[in-house]
Amino acid sequence: MIRTPLRPLARILEARQKGENPDAIEKENLRIRHEQMRDKARSRAEGRLLVMAVMFFCAFGVVGARMGTLAASEPAEPRAQSTGASIIASRADIVDRQGRIMATNMETFSLYAHPQQMIDPIRAAAELVKIFPELNEERLRKDFTGKRKFMWVRKKLSPEQKQQVHDIGEPGLLFGPREMRLYPNGALASHILGGASFGREGVHSAEVIGTAGIEKYFDKELRDPAREGAPLELSIDLTIQAAAERVLLGGMKLLNAKGAASVLMDVHTGEVISIASLPDFDPNDRPRPLTEGEPSDSPLFNRAVQGVYELGSTFKVFASAQALELGLVNPNTIINTAPPMRVNGHSIGEFGNKNYGSLSVSDIIVKSSNRGTGKLALQIGKTRQQEFLKSLGFFEPVPLEIVEAPGGQPLLPPRWADISTVTISYGHGISTSPLHLAAGYAALANGGHYVQPTLLKQDGPRLGPRVMSERTAAQSVEMLRKVVTKGTASFGEVPGYYVGGKTGTADKPRARGGGYYKDKVINTFASVFPTNDPKYVLIVTLDEPVETSGKKPRRTAGWTAVPVAAEMIRRVAPLLGLRPEVETRHLTGIVNTSN
Asked: Are 485 and 532 in contact (CB under 8 A)?
């Protein structure tokens, strides 16, 4: 930039020649320069103010636009996030067939600590132990006074516990919001639900994942945001489940049984209306698995699904049904059941060393003859017997919608000889679960179709492949009815409901060393009701029951499992909407006087 001199020589010389004061020129030039500097500074200041004004305008414009957008949008809760992928804390409810809550979520808090921010860690440890007696005070002191910057104290707090911790007044004790899984019915249907726990965890959120039962089987679906909170509807009826568990528990205690199981199933849809296993547990406080002993000693063990047992004479009706289906016999065909009977060098006997002589096929089931059933099985042959039992699902685990179901793998003989054909016909030499038996009896009751058990609510019948003719199924149900009216299950009669069924008393195998116990049995009663229009199958199994009201202890299913099943039917049949059919009697001594 070229600057004009304050005292230009030419003008100074000219002023001196004219007699003017040269200093006036300098002052005038100085004034002009100052005015130029002020104008330049003013322009610069005005530019800066303009830029700032534009910036403030833009900032307030953005804020106003954002406020307008939020005001026009729908309210939504913010999603809790952690480092990396977001934690999906929500989980859909589980409801029974009537829409009643079986599993839901509850908002709660976790307790964590920042030891470096604590004012009095020693006091905090002592106060926490008063609130949570299970905590170790010495361990807390060590953690609180050490170098740790973060630690969990408790993963779940009740509202009362949260308030007590808050009252300690320690700024290093902090709360994190989270959801926990709640089972409002406690131990009811615990083996179905299984339980849930925390997966990935953050300070402000935790992932709830299924750990067992249907919670784990449908874990992905229950956590799927696309469901939009739609509950998972089960086939279970909570009222019937409660009644069944109460009766089963009473029977187990009365008969000094080690454990018990029951399955109630719709024969047309395959819906499991109730399934119980005792002893049970509270999924809100799920116990730890056993590390030693037998699996069935744990309350987590599901006897109805995982437990595979020799179910005894309940299998005899399958042998007679197959013989009828093949046209080898009819219900009135006479079979000689008198001793002796030997197969592969083994003697086949009857319960109590009885000799029934000649019996019709129908009476073989009513009297529960081992020899009679065995002779039917030999006529059928092992190949056809295997095919029939396989069609009824006895060779594979039942694909029920709980993660424990694959554990119910049936135990089959390694070598299926003639003796196996005979013993399996009356329920020995093959071990299956009560759920397998329920599916097998459902095929008899629904007219001859295999139906797969399910824990999901169905819209209507879902019959599978036909495994026997309708006529064979009807004849088999008629035999089961006779077992109750004049056979080994006389205690199973429930007035108005036409109960039919078959008892099964099987010696319990030794866990070690092979062989069987002489005084321990597995008792089962497999029932169908009402037999005049079959709708439901009920299986009741008791582990090591003994009835002691008489002079001698009685261990047969007729004295143990049958009365328990009868009481259960008496309780649940009205809840199922079944009206008792009252038999009308001829009235005598009444004369019509209208004429």
From this structure: no
**The pair of three-digit structure tokens given for residue 52, joined into one six-digit string:** 């700032």
Q: Is 176 left (phi over 0), alpha (psi -120 to 50) or beta?
A: beta
Q: Are residues 410 and 278 in the same domain?
A: yes
Query: How many other C-beta atoms lie within 10 A of the C-beta of residue 245?
Result: 23
How far apart CA 505 and CA 523 sit, in angstroms, is 5
Q: Do 478 and 516 share a domain, yes or no?
A: yes
Residue 108 lies in a domain: yes
Torsion sign, CA atoms 236, 240, 244, 245? positive
**Is the same domain home to 357 and 404?**
yes
Q: Do 279 and 145 share a structural domain?
A: no
Distance CA(290)–CA(279), nearest Å, equals 14
CA atoms lying within 13 Å on the CB side of residue 563: 13
Is 392 within 8 Å of 439 (Cβ atoms)?
yes
307 and 433 in contact (C-beta within 8 Å)?
A: yes
Question: Can you give the pLDDT at residue 347?
Answer: 93
Q: What is the CATH number of the domain that holds 311?
A: 3.40.710.10
Is residue 325 helix, strand or coil? Answer: helix
Cβ–Cβ < 8 Å for 103, 183? yes
Whether residue 387 is found in the same domain as residue 316:
yes
591 within some domain = no
Tokens coding 197:
């726990």
Question: What six digits make up the tokens of 390?
Answer: 């396989």
The per-residue DSSP string of 130-146 comes to HH-TTS-HHHHHHHHTS
Task: Report the 10 Å Cβ neighbour count for 499.
Answer: 28
Q: For residue 168, give both structure tokens.
A: 């300690």
Q: What is the CATH number of the domain that holds 167?
A: 3.90.1310.10
Asked whether the CA dihedral 570, 262, 397, 512 is positive or negative, the reply is: negative
Q: Which pLDDT score, from 0 to 100, does residue 568 have?
A: 98
Distance CA 398, CA 434 (A): 10
Residue 284: how many CB atoms within 10 A of its CB? 16
The sign of the torsion formed by the CA atoms of 144, 150, 152, 158 equals: positive
Task: Give the Cα separation of 58 and 246 in Å (integer).
Answer: 72
Length of the chain (residues)? 595
Residue 541 phi, psi (nearest 5):
-125, 135
Measured CA to CA, the distance from residue 423 to residue 430 in angstroms comes to 8
Same domain flag for 191 and 329 = no
Block means of pLDDT (10 residues each) for the chain, 595 residues, are 66 71 73 81 87 90 85 55 50 95 91 92 93 92 90 88 92 88 95 90 79 95 87 97 97 96 98 97 91 86 95 96 97 94 93 91 96 96 97 96 95 95 95 97 97 96 96 97 95 95 92 82 96 97 93 93 97 95 58 53
Residues 564 and 511 grouped into a single domain: yes
Number of domains in the chain: 2
Residue 387: partners with Cβ closer than 8 Å, 6 or more residues away:
none
pLDDT number for residue 517: 87
